[in-house]
Amino acid sequence: MKRLLLGMCAGLLAFGGMLQSASALDIVLAISAAPGSTQYVTAEEFTRRANDLLGDKATVKFYGSSQLGKDKDLMQKLKLGTVNLSMPSSMMSSIAAEAGLFDMPFLVKDRAHLNRIEHEIFWPMIAPAIEAKGYKVIGFWENGIRHITNNVKPIVTPDDLKGLKIRTPKSTWRVKMFSAWGANPTPMSFSEVFVALQTGVIDGQENPYTNIAAAKLNEVQKYLSVTGHVYTPSYLTAGAEQWAKLPEDVRQVLEKTAVDVQGWMYATGTMDDMALRDELAKTMEVNIADRAAFVEASKPIYAEFAAEVPTGKEMIDKALQLAD
After folding, report:
1. Is 13 exposed, middle or buried (0-12, 13-18, 19+ CB in 10 A)?
2. How far is residue 159's CA from residue 279's CA, in Å, rounded to a whole number?
3. How far apart are CA 236 and CA 255, in angstroms?
């Protein structure tokens, strides 16, 4: 009888442990970016900090490199709740037209300017438009400042892009931008870019230094043209309905961590920009593009955005004012 009682107690303890394990809350964070990219290392840092603060309340589990799907798939999974958090970047303009502000070429002067745009334009004007589409933005992070690479020639002015097949994200305004510059823009998931460049399906692409290096695009690209044509944010995002279902104390920790990580991320991005350009120059031919020529060729994009997006002109005017 004693052995039987002991066995029953042990079984109840084991069952209790199983219930505790089964009820543990997992927060799935999934992104498409590759290891080494700003998005990837920021997601790692967020995961580490959040788990330190969450204790036994929940656990953030991070999946990178499109393990759980590409950006479009992940946005759908956010609404379904099979993924809790993701970090879309350029594709956000396809969710809410207002986010296309960050596709306006040469709009963002530097990270200090971006900080002012974030607080005076993004949170009051763009974030609500994204949330109206069923998403909740938790953090305003960074993808980076974008530059052009290709295998044909150095890009100095827009004329040098004529006829070149340039991969772009699936962003309406990025496609319009490269079309205006004379290129043949080819929207494509980032995970497909290396092979497309290697096989000659496309001639070039545009990305921040960190993404170029992380994906080893320098192995299949000859020229790196420093354009700095677009600064792309990265948005730590949840499905709005699924976010509301999380315990309030868990949401508070995740929101606080998203804010706290931002400063670390900007400092890391600044250091990476300086170091990676020199590193990429070891295997690529680097040139500085004619910014004035590109700015002049970009004026029609601003006019079209102002005409198509109800708040477009207001946001552009305000963003330009904040540059000073």
Report:
1. exposed
2. 28
3. 10
φ and ψ at residue 70, rounded to 5 degrees: -80, 175
Q: Is pLDDT of 248 > 50?
A: yes
Angstrom CA distances, 216 to 6, 8, 85, 165, 284, stand at 59, 58, 26, 19, 12
Q: Which helix (H) or strand (E) holds 28?
A: strand 26-30
Nearest-angstrom CA–CA distance, 96 and 88: 12
Q: What does residue 105 show for φ and ψ, rounded to 5 degrees?
A: -65, 135
Tokens representing residue 228 in the block: 């700095």
Q: Which residues in 247-282 are b (16+ Cβ under 10 Å) and which e?
A: eeebbebbeebbebbbeebbebbeebbeebbeebee
Please measure the distance between the N-terminal and C-terminal CA atoms of the chain and give it in whole angstroms: 83
Angle at 245 between CA 242 and CA 249, to 5 degrees: 120
User: Which tokens in the block code for residue 46?
Assistant: 């967020």
Cα distance between residue 45 and residue 43, in whole Å = 5
- Model confidence over 29-73: pLDDT tens digits? 999 998 999 999 999 999 999 999 999 999 999 999 999 999 999
Cβ count within 10 A of residue 35: 11
What pTM did the predictor assign? 0.89
pLDDT digits (tens, 9 = 90+) for 90-136: 999 999 999 999 999 999 998 899 999 999 999 999 999 999 999 99
Look up residue 309 and give its two tokens: 């997006």
3-state class (DSSP) for residue 204 = strand
